[in-house]
Each structure stands twice: as C-alpha cells, then as structure tokens.
Amino acid sequence: MPYDDSPPPARRARLLSVAAALAAVCLTAAGCGGGPQADGAGAASPRPGADAASSSAPPPAGKQPEPSGSASPSGSAKPLPKGPLTGRTVVIDPGHNPRNRDHTREINEQVDIGTGRKECDTTGTSTDDGYAEARFTLDVSHRLRELLETEGARVRLTHDDDRPFGPCIDERARIGNEAKADAVVSVHADGSAVGNRGFHVILPAGVKGGGADTSKIVKSSADLGARIAGHFVRTTGSAPSNYIGGNTGLDTRNDLGGLNLSTVPKVFVECGNMRDPKDAALLTSASWRQKAAQGLADGITDYLKG
Fold it and tell me: CA-CA distance, 289 to 247, in Å (whole number)?
C-alpha cells in the first residue's frame, strides 16, 4: 500500500496535537521511540494486492502460527454481560478475506470511494513464511470481539470468513454506518520493507466529494486513534512505526474508501510489518496477538468511556 508521509502544515499540526495522548502513555512504555528512526517518506513498499498466489498462501509445514483463542460467529447471539460498554456498538473490520485470492476478477472491480475509484478489495500481504494478513486479521478480530463483549459491547464483524470474497471497501464502510456504530476499527498488518517496524493507526482526512463526507468524524476518529495508539504501545511493547507518521504512530489518509465513506468514528490499525522478520515473529505469535487485541480493546474502551 503506497504511503505519502509528507503531510502539509495543517495536517502535521493536527497529527502533533492528536499525538499528545500517545506521548503521555509512551513515557511509561518500554521501547517507545527507541532505535534508529526513519522519516518514512517513500520508504514503504506497496501492499501486494495483485499477487494472490503468494500473499494468501497457507503457511508451509512446520511454519503454522499458533491457533486463535476464539472462533465464534460474526453475529454473536450469546447474552452479553453488563459492563462499562453496555449499550455501545462496535464494528470490527478484519482486513481482506482469505479467499480473495480465488476471486481476483471480482475484487479488482472498481468502486467509488468519494475521492475517486479503487479496487473492491485486495488479497493483502503475508509473512515470508506464508502466514496471510487475512488470517491474522480474523484471529485478532475474534480475540478483540471476545474482549469487548466481556465489557458488555454489542460487536459485529464485517465478515468472518463466511463469504467467497470481500466485502468491498464501500460495503465495509456501509456496515459500520448502518449499525450506527459508536466506533469502527479495521484491523490490518502492513507489507513494507525489511527494517520498517512498528504499528501505526490511520486516521480519516477531511474529505468531501462524491459519496464521501468525513467532516463530522475527523475529530472523533482522531481521538479514537490516539487512544488506541497509546494503549497499543503500553500493552504490546511495540513502538510506533519508524517509517510512517513521524514517530507518532498516527497517519492521516484520504485515499481509503473504508474511511472516506464512513459516517461514524473509524480508524485503520496496521499492527506491524509482516515483511520484517522481527515484526513477523510477533504477528505469528498467539500470545502477542492476544496482547494486540487487548491493546485495541483498551483503546476502544477508553474512547467510549471518555
């Protein structure tokens, strides 16, 4: 996924303001901001959306990631406990679909994203050992759902490996909108160059055009993203990205249909870089994925209670 990490002055000012919440948590987080940092402009390599065979291949023998701790359906019908999130609705959007690779024609169809047109979806990336991003995002989403439901939230997944491909990016946004979600989080992992490490949270830019108008959600989404970034640092021990976001762990984009078309607070979270061996070792660890889910849950809870 190509990135533009050279924000104009207004965008940079907003990023620095939003990053204050992250900075407060980073003071107590091991490793936050440590190590050599790169500006990131032009450093990230494109997300390999067209290479279905390589990016969604199952892990080879002996390289299977540890199993998920949850496998409940996308529309959980179990009674919810009373908790701090009772009455709140959260939509979790697991990035990509494990079977997108078998439906390249369908996912290459263009859809309107407000600022232009873009592919319905992509296959996503994978680790060098073949652990697909789509599998990672489903696993973390299952874990996140369980944590949020424990707090009393109504949780919906945009998909749960229960459809042949997609949903398309415009439908993903529509699912959150129609649910009148209090927060939507799209779970991803990046596919950048070796040496590019860490997580970042993508925030919606101010967009108005076509079917897109983010004017009512820019501020709330930035708040959601900053809280998630802060808790993700503390819970996982991962530092903010050293190649996107100027060490804030936050990036703003206007080319993602899932954000442009949202009418409710929404962010994307790139939990790490699958193409870097050190990050890949974390992403393929069940215990780390549980920490990632916990960091996301804590950030969402903090936002909804704030």
Answer: 22
What residues are annotated to the active site? Answer: 270
Give helix 9-26 / helix 218-236 axis angle, nearest 10°: 40
What is the sign, positive or negative, of the torsion defined by CA atoms of 17, 22, 27, 31?
negative
* Bridging pattern class, strands 183-190 and 266-273: parallel
Pair of tokens at residue 53? 């065979």
Measured CA to CA, the distance from residue 218 to residue 216 in angstroms comes to 6
pLDDT digits (tens, 9 = 90+) for 251-299: 999 999 999 999 999 999 999 999 999 999 999 999 999 999 999 999 9
The answer to pTM > 0.70 is: yes
Q: Could you tell me if 190 and 199 are in contact, meaning their C-beta atoms sit under 8 angstroms apart?
A: no
Q: Helix H segments across the chain? A: 9-26, 52-55, 104-107, 133-150, 169-178, 218-236, 257-260, 277-283, 286-305
Bridge partners, residue 111, by sequence:
118
